[in-house]
Amino acid sequence: MPVCLNRNRSSHNPQTVGVGRRPAVDYQTAASSCIHIGLVNNMPDAALLATERQFITLLDAAADGILVHLTFYALPDVPRGNAGRHRVNRYYTSAENLWDTELDGLIVTGREPQAANLKDEPYWGSFTRVLEWAKDNTRSTVWSCLAAHAALLHMDGITRHRSKEKRCGVFDCVRLADHPLMAGVPWRLKMPHSRWNDIAEDELRARGYTVLTQAQDAGADTIVKDANSLFVFFQGHPEYESDSLLLEYRRDVKRYLTRETDTYPSMPRAYFDKDTEDALTVLREKAMCGRSEELIHDVAAVGNLKTITHTWHSTAALVYSNWLKYICAQKEDLLTQSKVVARDTERTGAA
């Protein structure tokens, strides 16, 4: 089934998008296998389009007979430049419209923090309002990366802790628990992470969270808690494309070379082939001896996409497929209950 993307707030006729460009399907048919998902995209302007593409592609791969009707939402107080505002105004619906909307599921992305305390971010108020709305108005909500940290802070006061080095790369993970989201997921898997901060697992468990997967040397990977809606928290990035970590690494190196930061970024672990790692190590040594913006082009020339393997994609698609199936099952239960109530009411009236 395709992912149907509603890019026009004045229209309820979504256009069909997806890897295969498949024909449009009537998303009103087979109600329990037709679900409406909202994506609250908080990413900065430069990453808006890439994030849209990543989640569309992942949901498309995960759908497996489920028709996903996807709508983009934006928090009104996320800082935007002219280009970002133009795209949001054209293709997104304000999160303020969620309060009168019915959604089966929701995905909320993170963004690079600007404040030391997440509660000081300009969008904190609207973010927490979306969270409280999602508890009672979705069957399940995914909180991605920084959004996961912000949600944990708001819900249970769980604070994140900054690491000495950025946890960046493709990490070996282990499955710790059985859960509908883990159906068919191998006990050992790989998942990309890109973050400075971590959440203590003992704090999560003490407050009723279940850690489903754990990343070696990077802590909890996938976390869940039943908050009326099933809340799913990803510290990693299952939606990442094969080149996402490469592009982030180039960006961070550029920030160092242009003196936006004084920390040279750690190379993503278990990501590049040995020849690429050796070449990037040489460039790092040159940069540490003297910053030169000319090295930006050298770093860009080294990365070779042909040597990067999308090792986590099949697992990511399976996890999201399980998530969509969970939502469908919850929707089917509700539809069945409604039919029973309607039938009993009809019988009572006839009597």
List the main descriptive attributes of the protein structure presented here.
351 residues, alpha/beta, Rossmann fold, 2 domains, 12-stranded mixed sheet, 9 helices, 12 strands
Basic shape: globular
Major sheet description: 12 strands, mixed
Oligomer: single chain
Proportion of strand residues: 15-25%
Helix content class: 25-40%
Total E-strand runs: 12
Q: What count of structural domains?
A: 2
Radius of gyration: 21 Å
Figure out the total of helices: 9
| CATH C-level class of the largest domain | Alpha Beta
The assigned structural class equals alpha/beta
Span between N and C termini? 44 Å
Order of secondary-structure elements = EEEHEHEEHEHEEHEEEHHHH
CATH topology of the largest domain: Rossmann fold
Determine the CATH superfamily of the largest domain: Class I glutamine amidotransferase (GATase) domain
Give your account of this protein's structure:
38% of the residues lie in helices and 23% in strands. It has helices at residues 48-62, 82-91, 124-137, 146-156, 201-206, 244-257, 274-289, 295-302, 313-350, and strands spanning 3-6, 15-17, 34-40, 67-74, 93-94, 105-108, 140-144, 161-175, 188-198, 210-215, 219-227, 229-234. Strand 1 and strand 2 form a beta hairpin. The longest helix is centred in the C-terminal third of the chain and has 38 residues, at 313-350.
Task: Give a short synopsis of this structure.
38% of the residues lie in helices and 23% in strands. It is built from nine helices and twelve strands.
